[in-house]
Sequence to fold (160 residues):
Amino acid sequence: MVQTVPAIQGWFTQGHAEGEQPALLGSRCTTCATVFFPPVAAEGFCRNPACSGERFEQTELGRRGTVWSYTDAQYQPPAPYVPASDPYEPFALAAVELPEGLVVLGQVARGFGVADLQVGAEVELVVETLYTDDQGERTVWRWRPVPALGATGSAAGGSR
Ligand SMILES: [Zn+2]
Fold:
């Protein structure tokens, strides 16, 4: 029996159920409504220095954002990075600004690289397998470029 579970519990939903989309899970301060990612404990101190809030509720973050910055990881990052392949295959990382105003770093979806990215371009959240161990598949969120309106999709590897 192979399970598909998040590599990190509680940071995102996988959206495997019918009609369900994956989403990052953030924490919203019940006092100032500021949203944080990664999520914080249900009770703690708000990271907004102007706020004395101590309670948070879970909230799903917007599934689409815009590329704020990106980079190419040509060398294998140090631990706790888990190599997805041996030998190491370079991958692209994108920092994506979400509608909530925060920036979330993530790998770029399989099959895409820095050549598919542009600052200000739209990307959407997908959940892909990070690695497989004897427990099953471990998943992580990634950012997938959204083809611009009117594009044929050839550059984005869409239709075939
Ligand atoms: Zn607050």
